[in-house]
Amino acid sequence: MPLVSTIVLCLLAMLLGVFVGTLTGLIPGLHVNTAAFLFVSLISSLLSANPLLLTPAIVFIMSAAITHTFLDFIPSIFVGAPDESTCLSVLPGHRLTLRGYGYVALVYSALSGLFGSLFAVLFLPLLLSFGNEVYNTIKSFIPYILIGVMFILLLGERKKVSAAIILLLSCFLGIVVLSLPMTSGDALVSMLTGLFGLSTIIMSIYTSPSIKRQKLNFKINWRDITSNSLLGSVAGILSGLLPGITPTQSSIIVAQLKRRMSERSFIAMLGSANTVHAFIAVMSIFIISKPRSGVAIALQSLGMGKSSIPLLILCTVVSASLATVITIVVGRRFASDLTEINYGKLGIAILLFLMILTFIQASFLGGVCHVNFMFARNSCLPHGGEEEFTDGCAHLSGNSELFGMMKLTHPFVSCGKHTINFIKILVSGVKKVHELNPPSFHVENDVTLKKVKFI
Length: 455
What we know:
Layout: H1 3-26, H2 32-49, H3 54-71, H4 73-78, H5 90-98, H6 102-138, H7 142-155, H8 160-178, H9 184-207, H10 222-241, H11 247-255, H12 263-287, H13 294-301, H14 309-336, H15 343-379, H16 392-399, H17 405-408, H18 410-427
Helix pairs in contact: 1-3, 1-14, 2-3, 2-13, 3-12, 3-14, 5-6, 6-10, 6-12, 6-14, 8-16, 9-15, 10-11, 10-12, 11-12, 12-13
């Protein structure tokens, strides 16, 4: 294939990837991992016949992955319907939207994501040289570090007893759910949708919030964006390399380096962390010889080698630049029309969409679980700020096997399994509940530990 034709195909693949990433980012519940694996399944036969299509395929997947990390802030900030990578931005982003500063937060997240992609490229040579040695040294301590951080944050709560009870119950709930006859991916979809999507939308519908007109013209604090994008880059690198740590978790940990952080600054840091995580999770194939995301596994399955690193870097920077512009333009249009939208009807429509999507994606059992997570989250609201500790259900459950916690809870888990089996028998006459085969890829827990105290 001539060089000119390859360049043209790569440009078209990048534009198509940016378009797909825009769709997956804007539509709640639709993740770029799904699009990546679907694309790989469709193109595999073509690659075997024409290996030269490998380069455009890599460009398409990487462009979609990077773009997704920018656009998915729009539904999470304005509507309160996040995916797993932006679940932590829902509460501060929603509060800023109610006060008229949602678009400001969106612009800061987009610009920080762009800066973060540049910082990630600058850090890459260092990671390629020493990342594997550092990873092998500290990986065995990761679960202990995460649990230690969680309890340190627990000590900062005003109502420590209530927070501790909620934390323990939520951790137990996560262990039980991940022990049910579902794949880990279905279980996490149920957790995340119930904890961060449905619960926030339900509260918005119930309280009927009055949304102020969004501030569209403002002065950008470039120093704030630079500093927070640098912190977010550190968080993204940690989550991109270390198992069991996600952008939201690592952002909480890194945020402790600042004594005072505004809601806007935290969303900016999270925007950088998500973009850097998407990039480093792919580069972890070359740094530690292990993919750290569904997109990375999809690219690895195509037979991508080290010679693709310059292409991935170029694709990341260009896609981040395009995604920044798209996010700002689309977000401005959305923000300008937000006060004219019937928020109650919009919330109900998205609520029904997420519930139907979860029932389809995670089966009947997963749908029942995510409704329970929604009520569990909202039941914590009368106790103050401890509702964030319901996030522990996925955090500790993801590391429970390392501590033998599954053995300790085995009798309760068995009881839960028998209960679910009984429910299946009752509904089998109406609908056959089928069990999905476990996927061949690993889905990492991507859930927050706790909120950050904002000023």
